[in-house]
């Protein structure tokens, strides 16, 4: 099922539930009921709970967005480090240079075509990706420089392979969901409480009141969906992409 369809269903359901409860609750109110008699303390507490929940939602959105940005940055660093390995190997003999570049391209192709799919579905890296990166490392570290020029390029190449490995590890750590279950529990219960409190204000069936109640519930549903979507940096619609690999290795990724 499309994530945007899920969002549409969630928002429509939240709005429908709130409006249905509002209408049914209004039918139970007696003719002599006066909505202006809502105690001031209820209005104050409703406002305060809404403010607190808004702060919690803001912090949650900021947290998952930061996780998504960190995931995309790890992809960029990994692609850039591998690009440097491919570019700096130009000082080596043709046979060694071509082997390094071929193994780098093989690793990038595998990441884009296969490992990325595994990350999005299962939230983890693959052993084959680790093997291909180890092969690149072996190409670089096992070569013995034959002159000073090659010797000066050796250590930076080793460092770039290490940087790619470190960025790959960060990519693996960011592959799964980042929000703990207890936080989700708090967000959902908070949403129910916040939306439920609007009924303490004796909402009526006027178009204006029902419209505001519906829009409020839709907004809460949308914000929760936004947090859910950002919570998997590689697995959902608004997620990190393979763009750095595609941009730096167009010949290897078909870009």
Automatic annotation (TrEMBL):
InterPro entries: DUF4239. The chain crosses the membrane at residues 6-24, 44-65, 182-203, 210-228. The keyword RNA-binding does not apply. Keywords: Membrane, Transmembrane, Transmembrane helix. It comes from the Bacteria. This is DUF4239 domain-containing protein. The lineage of its organism: Bacteria, Bacillati, Actinomycetota, Actinomycetes, Kitasatosporales.
